[in-house]
Each structure stands twice: as structure tokens, then as C-alpha cells.
Write a structure and sequence with these properties.
Layout: H1 2-33, H2 43-64, H3 70-88, H4 98-130, H5 139-144, H6 148-158, H7 164-184, H8 198-202, H9 209-354, H10 359-445, H11 449-464, H12 474-481, H13 486-501
Helix pairs in contact: 1-2, 1-4, 2-3, 2-4, 3-4, 9-10, 10-11, 11-13, 12-13
């Protein structure tokens, strides 16, 4: 075998070398005759013959790796046919001298035949190593049993019976069983049961006699096994269902307990918030009453201010009247002086002209003139006094009016503070109600403690920071959630901001 292998290898190599050398020379000349340039013509036979070697080598390599690709073999055979045609037609028309054409084309064919022999050897060796080698049916069987052999061959190939002897043994067992069955039922196979006819029925499908006869029992065992498996699955399902029901019942009872605890806590917080809100509302009502009283006081002060203003105007009128009286008194005094002068002139004139009146009458007139002057002086002093009194009364009324305005402003500020406190109380009440509903929803959803804390911080951001996370101090989060680390409070605030950005609303 070694000598034969060496001889085959040497001979195949010589045939290939000689064939490719002859093909190269012939195809190079053909390429020049077909119009290839002198530079490209020598490469034409290299491309054609090298493709044959490359395709066949790749086909053998893939077969060795148990991944054959028939396209490579067909491509190599196509290129072989092309080079045979090119070589045969290089000397002119093939029909003109077929012997000469065959002499030029036979060498590539011999090389491909050698490669095909190597391919067959490699395939058979790989099948033997893998244990998948299939025996060939002898030629004499095809000749001696031309009708039964195709069915025989079909069973071997369809049902992976690699050994010819094994297939023959199966056929013999089947014939022997059929003869025994005929003898059992007197030559009438129709009397046999379906189970007894199973070997003939299942033989076309690759079953042996023993395998076919064992099918009913095997199928019964498998059916029983399937039934047992189904029963086991049913019992497992019932067990899991009972466990799930018990676990669900336990979870429900636990959830009910947690819900009751949360409801009690929320109701306590709600009651506390409502009491605080009622206290705030009562304080707001009291503040409103005080504001109303202050408003009434302000109205009274305003009325007093108006009265003082009227009195001031009246004083001004009296002052004006006093000034008018003063001017009248002054005029009267001037008139008295004029009268005095006139009287003095009259007296002198009378003394000089007539000397009729006596000294006593002149003194009386003089005394009367002095009396009139003194009365005018007194009237002027009284007018000045009334003017000063009116100015004092006006200043007093102005001071009272300013005090009334200040008191009204103070009452208004108290009223605004009461309204703000009432609004804050309503806000706290609404926040407590939102917190209660949110806690109930979280209990229903069975959220984890961290998820509850994040949602609680989100509600604090909505209520206390107008929806802006950065406005909520970390100290408030630490106090509300009883955490000591500012970093943890910051993480809660960041997760709450992301939750709000995702659309969370309690």
C-alpha cells in the first residue's frame, strides 16, 4: 500500500506537471492569437490552470474539515472543461483533426481524474474515521435482483444503514418472520393482528423485526410515562397553586396590617392637621373680628377726623371772622381816632368859635372816645385768642387723624397676616390630605421604603418649593425622613426631581 501510494503520488504529480506545462504553452500561444498583448498572454494559462488547482485544493480542504461545498467542485470541472476546449481548439477546427485535438486536451482531463481519485480517498477516510462510511451494494445484486435492489438501496440511504451485511441480515429476518407468521395462521396473513403485522408495516421505515415488535410495549411505556409525567406536573401545579394562595393570603393579611397601621397614622396626622387648621381658622376669625373692630374704630376715627376738619374749618372761619372783626375794630379805632380828632377839632372849634360846651361835656366825650378805643383793643385781643384756639384745635384734629390712619394701617396689616396664616393652614390641610392619599396609593402599590421616601420628598418639593427641587433645603429632608447624612438627603432630592420630571403627581 505504501508503494502504491508513492507510485500514485509520483505519477499524479508527473501527469499534472506535464499536463499543465503543455497546457501553459498551448494557451499562451492561443492568447496571442486571440489578441492578448505579449505582456498579458503568458498570464492567461496561469489564471485558467491555477483556478483549477485552487478550486480542487479548496474542495479537498473543506472535505477534510467536514464542510464540503459542491460549488467549488463544479467550478473546477467547468474550468477543466474550458481548458480542455481551449487546448483542443488551439490547432484549428476539432472536427478537422480530432486525434490532434484530443492529444492537446487529454492532459488536463487526466489531472482532474487523479484529483477526483484523491478526493474519493479523502472522503472515504473521513467517513471511516467518523464511523459514517456506507457500504456499496455489489453490482451482482443489481443484476440478479433488479426490482428489489432499488428498495433495498432506498432503505439503506434513507435510514442510515451503513453496512450492507446489516441490511441483508434485516431483510433475512423480515422474510423469516413473515414465513413464521404465515405458518402460524395457516398461510393467511389477514388473520394476524395489527401488532403481529408491524414488522412488515414498519420495514420500509428502517425498523428491524425486533424493533417493530417492541413498538407497542415501548409506546405503552411511553404513554404511561407521559401520563405519570402529566400527573406529576398536575400535582406540582396544584402544590404551587396552594403555596401561591397561602402566600397571597399571607401577603394580603400583612398588607392589611400595614394598611391599617398607615391608615391609623395618616388619620392621626389628618386629625392633627384638621385641629391645627381649625385653630388657625379660629384665630383667623378672631383676627377678622378684631380687624372689623379696628375698621369700625378707624371709621369712628375718620368720623372724628372729619369732625375735627369741620371744626378746623369752623375755627378758620371764626379766625377769619375774628380777623375781619379785628380789622373792623381797627377801622373802628381809626374812626374813633378820627372822631377823636374831629371831636378835638370840634372842641377847639367850639371853644374858639362858640365856647358853648362846658369843660365837663368835653371830658365826657373824651372819656367816651377812650372807652371806644379800649373796647376795640379788647375785641382785637379776643379775636387773637380765638384764632390761637382754632389753630390748637386744628393741630389736635390733625394728630388724631394721623393716629387713626396709623391704627387703620396696623389693623390692615393684622388682617393680611391673618389671611396669610389662614391660607397657610389651608395649604397644610391640603398637603396632609395629599399625603394621606399618596400613602394609601403607595400601600396599594406595595412600594419599597426607599421608593416611599423618594415620593415623599417629591411631594415636599411640590408643596414647599413650588415644584423646584433646589429650593427645598436638605435640612428639611433630613428632619422629615430622619436621615443624618446630607448626601443621602441630596440623593433623595435628586431622585425625587427625576420622578417629578417623569410626570409623577400625587
Amino acid at each position: 500500500m505504501t508503494a502504491l501510494s508513492v507510485a500514485a503520488a509520483i505519477g499524479g504529480t508527473l501527469v499534472g506537471v506535464i499536463g499543465f506545462a503543455m497546457s501553459y504553452s498551448t494557451l499562451a500561444k492561443v492568447a496571442l492569437a486571440w489578441g492578448f498583448s505579449e505582456d498579458l498572454a503568458p498570464w492567461f494559462p496561469v489564471g485558467v490552470d491555477a483556478s483549477i488547482i485552487a478550486f480542487l485544493a479548496l474542495d479537498l480542504y473543506l472535505i477534510r474539515k467536514d464542510t464540503p461545498w459542491p460549488l467549488l467542485r463544479m467550478a473546477a470541472h467547468a474550468m477543466t472543461g474550458a481548458t480542455v476546449w481551449f487546448n483542443a481548439s488551439s490547432q484549428g477546427h476539432i472536427a478537422a483533426d480530432p486525434v490532434k485535438a484530443a492529444s492537446h486536451g487529454v492532459m488536463p482531463v487526466l489531472f482532474v481524474i487523479g484529483v477526483e481519485a484523491a478526493r474519493r480517498l479523502i472522503i472515504q477516510k473521513a467517513r471511516l474515521e467518523a464511523g459514517t462510511a456506507v457500504d456499496r451494494i455489489p453490482l451482482h445484486r443489481w443484476i440478479l435482483a433488479p426490482l428489489d435492489t432499488p428498495r433495498f438501496y432506498r432503505r439503506m440511504r434513507l435510514y442510515a444503514v451503513a453496512s450492507y451485511e446489516e441490511m441483508v441480515r434485516r431483510q433475512q429476518d423480515l422474510i423469516a418472520y413473515e414465513q413464521w407468521l404465515k405458518r402460524k395462521h395457516g398461510g393467511d396473513l389477514s388473520k394476524a393482528s395489527d401488532d403481529e403485522r408491524l414488522p412488515m408495516t414498519m420495514a420500509p421505515y428502517g425498523y428491524t423485526v425486533s424493533e417493530a415488535l417492541a413498538l407497542p410495549e415501548q409506546q405503552e411505556r411511553e404513554a404511561q410515562k407521559r401520563a405519570e409525567e402529566a400527573e406529576r406536573r398536575r400535582l406540582d401545579a396544584e402544590t404551587r397553586r396552594e403555596l401561591a394562595q397561602k402566600k397571597a393570603e399571607a401577603d394580603r393579611l400583612e398588607a392589611d396590617g400595614e394598611l391599617e397601621a398607615v391608615r391609623a397614622r395618616v388619620e392621626g396626622q389628618t386629625a392633627q392637621a384638621r385641629a391645627h387648621a381649625r385653630a388657625q381658622a379660629s384665630a383667623a376669625e378672631r383676627a377678622a373680628e378684631l380687624e372689623e373692630q379696628a375698621l369700625e374704630t378707624a371709621l369712628a376715627a375718620e368720623a372724628r377726623a372729619r369732625q375735627a376738619e369741620a371744626q378746623r374749618k369752623e375755627a378758620q372761619e371764626r379766625e377769619a371772622k375774628a380777623e375781619a372783626d379785628l380789622r373792623a375794630a381797627e377801622l373802628e379805632r381809626q374812626a374813633a381816632e378820627k372822631r377823636k380828632e374831629a371831636a378835638e377839632a370840634d372842641r377847639v372849634a367850639a371853644a374858639e368859635a362858640q365856647a358853648i360846651e362846658t369843660q365837663a361835656v368835653a371830658e365826657a366825650r373824651k372819656a367816651a372816645a377812650e372807652a371806644d378805643r379800649a373796647a376795640a383793643e379788647m375785641e382785637r385781643a379776643a379775636a387773637e385768642t380765638r384764632r390761637a384756639a382754632a389753630e390748637t384745635e386744628r393741630r389736635k384734629a390733625e394728630e388724631e387723624r394721623r393716629q387713626a390712619i396709623a391704627l387703620a394701617d396696623a389693623k390692615r396689616a393684622q388682617k393680611d397676616a391673618a389671611e396669610a396664616e389662614q391660607a397657610a393652614a389651608e395649604t397644610r390641610l391640603a398637603a396632609a390630605e395629599i399625603e394621606r392619599r399618596a400613602v394609601e396609593a403607595e400601600d396599594v402599590a406595595r412600594l419599597k421604603p426607599r421608593e416611599r421616601s423618594v415620593r415623599r420628598v417629591a411631594r415636599m418639593i411640590l408643596v414647599a418649593a413650588d415644584g423646584v427641587a433646589e429650593r427645598l433645603p436638605l435640612a428639611d429632608i433630613q428632619h422629615e425622613l430622619a436621615v443624618s447624612s446630607p448626601a443621602t438627603a441630596s440623593e433623595y432630592r435628586q431622585e425625587a426631581a427625576e420622578l417629578l420630571a417623569g410626570g409623577y403627581r400625587p
